[in-house]
Description:
Layout lengths: L12 E5 L4 E5 L1 E3 L13 E9 L1 H8 L2 H6 L4 E7 L5 E15 L7 E7 L9 H9 L13 H13 L7 E4 L4 E5 L6 H13 L9 H8 L3 E3 L3 E6 L1 H7 L11 H11 L2 E5 L1
Parallel strand pairs: 8-10, 9-11, 11-12
Antiparallel strand pairs: 1-2, 1-5, 2-4, 3-4, 4-7, 5-6, 6-7
Helix pairs in contact: 4-5, 6-8
Amino acid sequence: MRIESQDFSQPKFLLIDGDGQVLGACPDAVGVFVEPAGGDEPVTVEILGCLPSRRLREYLEGSRRYRLKNPLWLEGLRMLDAAGEPLADFWVSEITEWRPSRLGAERVDIIAEWGYDSPRASVRHIWERWWRTRPDRVNQWAVYGPEGRQEWLDIVSRAIGRGSSRVDRSPGHVYRLDGSHVTDECSFYLALGEAINGPGGYFGRNFSALDDCLAGRFGARTPFTLIWGDAHVARQSLAEVSEDDVLACFDIIRTILEEHHVNVVWG
């Protein structure tokens, strides 16, 4: 993500090792957002102005023999939001090159092989919106088309902190789902996540994940009541049956909810 400000007191990325330890704090990176390319040529990311830990600097400046004896196992590049809170991790592989940085005498620029999970350039604006301000009201995703909603759901799914250790509310709770914008399966998960866990909340991204969330540790414990407002929108939009499906998407969702003893009140 290319951000104009160069406030070094507030890094925008952290380089993380396999143990979750911070190897370096970085104000910027180039190549985070890419479009899929053909061929076998690896995609790289350029991490700019990284202030390395002692361990990372010793590794970079060490001999080939030193690096072989002291391997550096990278885990990823962690994106922080504008408030400095962790937003998402991206997989990063081997460091292929490094050089002193023009951003400061103690800093280095690092080129590393980029992972398979990098966001597409066409949806960068959605990540930047999350980077500036996390969602503070429901349905902020509704202004986007199918691609944008899918990327919003991807961010919701990956956002650090949503995890699988959220304290569940006790059974019997009542949740209200605003179904006025549920026009496809993706928007159902967005609306349900916000009904359960508030703006930007997560509660599944596909049938299997929904089943997992209903088993607990994602903010709600069954049985509970789900008041589904404007349910007719989803009933009409999710009624299509694909060639490989026996049931329509709407019916599958309803069946999963029923199997987990969710009392759905259709509005």
